[in-house]
Amino acid sequence: MVEISSDVIRGYNDTMILSILLKEPSYGYEISKQIKTITDEKYIIKETTLYSAFTRMEKNGFIESFVAEQDPEGNSKKRTYYRITDKGREYYESKCEEWELTKDVVEKFIQLR
Amino acid sequence: MVEISSDVIRGYNDTMILSILLKEPSYGYEISKQIKTITDEKYIIKETTLYSAFTRMEKNGFIESFVAEQDPEGNSKKRTYYRITDKGREYYESKCEEWELTKDVVEKFIQLR
DNA sequence: TATATTTACTTCAACAGATGAAGTACTCCA
DNA sequence: TGGAGTACTTCATCTGTTGAAGTAAATATA
After folding, report:
1. Which of A16, B84, B86, B95 could join B109 in a cystine, given CB atoms 3.0 to 4.6 angstroms apart?
2. Of B93, B105, B113, which is closest to A42 when you measure between CB atoms?
3. What is the Cα–Cα distance from B74 to B68, expressed in whole angstroms?
4. Count of domains for chain A
5. Stated in angstroms, how far is B65 CA from C14 C1'?
6. pLDDT digits (tens, 9 = 90+) for A8-64
7. How many angstroms separate the CA atoms of B26 and B80, rounded?
């Protein structure tokens, strides 16, 4: 079973999270489930990786947080939602461009079978 | 100008070096020039990255070093050459497999234009 | 011949992102 | 009543990358 090493995916955790937030605001647990589903369980983001990415990206102005209740009555558990900012959208797009370049570069050294 | 961030390439510096050593033994300066040429200068490996990769990979048994003279008379500058081991070849192959998986995963989150 | 550039490294300290361990607390279902 | 699931937080540690700086021989240029 081939596994993805963290050193490879390192540069793209933020991009994955942002790509999910492009559609609508979301929160940690939900985003981690989505990443799992989208990748057919090939990649499962670690909790600490995810939450530290939130902190970092909020500091960088790529996302904004807001607290919301799980149900409208307000008698349920609180969640911290995140929404992507314009700066985040720009960053995401630059990462997509970077990916094309990275792929070209890495593939010069990869032998396909 | 799109630039490759070190966090992206992190997992593949070793792979690039090994891919060059697959053909024949080589040394630092030569390998760095080859990476530059092969990638059309899109990626230039930093000296410290390169030499720390050598140390790490030798420790892991992926490469072996030997010192050789630049010309047969032995009156020239010494170089440390590296040669890939069987373990290194295995590692390289596993990295190639991993790459295919990584590419699939990342591309689920990338928007092409 | 003097000097600048290229070749070929080494050492070291600092940094950033990923991660394991551990803990908290609430909800839901059997 | 208790276990699984949800939804996080804190903290210490690790690894690979990097900048800065230094060394020294070989080669090109003036």
Report:
1. A16
2. B105
3. 9
4. 1
5. 29
6. 788 899 999 999 999 999 999 999 999 999 999 999 999 999 999 999 999 999 999
7. 8
